[in-house]
Q: What sequence folds into this?
């Protein structure tokens, strides 16, 4: 038997084994990452649900409509967790990618990672309406959004732009405001 041939066989088998183990580890890490992302989306949904309890809208209705703008998994998770759930006697309805007519019926607009132009357009369309705008980027409240659910390390941080909240005639519980980081718009964004 040729010794070089046997050594090459061991190397090929070792390389195959290494490849199988590496792929298995990548799959396991990808699964963990996927679960972590799903957990983050579920946490965001829980925060939105709690916002429905700590924000007061000027119009009295028996429902709350959450419109979701943007791509990704946040919208479907919000729909799965919140749609048809009750909050203080009001039924929550989730509308993914609301049309202009549906937008007028929304009480909350949740915006997922938009471009600057998209964010400006969405906030402009919601301006002057009693609609709570919620986003998930650090720049959201500085651009005029009302509530930012921003990841800070392992925790979710609530950022609130009080000027935007008051301009929409919405009131937020002082209990929630004590937990929030109060932000304001940058002068360049006004």
A:
């Amino acid at each position: 038997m040729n010794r070089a041939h046997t050594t090459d066989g061991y190397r090929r088998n070792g390389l195959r084994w290494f490849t199988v183990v590496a792929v298995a580890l990548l799959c396991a890490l990808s699964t963990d990452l996927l679960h972590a992302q799903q957990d983050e989306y579920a946490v965001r949904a829980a925060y939105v649900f709690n916002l429905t309890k700590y924000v007061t809208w000027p119009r009295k209705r028996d429902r709350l409509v959450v419109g979701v703008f943007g791509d990704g998994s946040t919208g479907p998770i919000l729909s799965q967790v919140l749609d048809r759930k009750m909050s203080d006697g009001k039924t929550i309805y989730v509308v993914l990618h609301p049309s202009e007519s549906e937008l007028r019926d929304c009480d909350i607009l949740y915006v997922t990672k938009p471009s600057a132009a998209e964010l400006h357009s969405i906030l402009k369309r919601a301006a002057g309406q009693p609609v709570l705008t919620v986003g998930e980027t650090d720049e959201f409240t500085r651009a005029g959004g009302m509530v930012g659910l921003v990841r800070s390390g392992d925790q979710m941080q609530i950022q609130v732009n009080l000027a935007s909240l008051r301009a929409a005639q919405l009131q937020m519980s002082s209990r929630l405001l004590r937990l929030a980081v109060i932000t304001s718009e940058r002068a360049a964004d006004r």
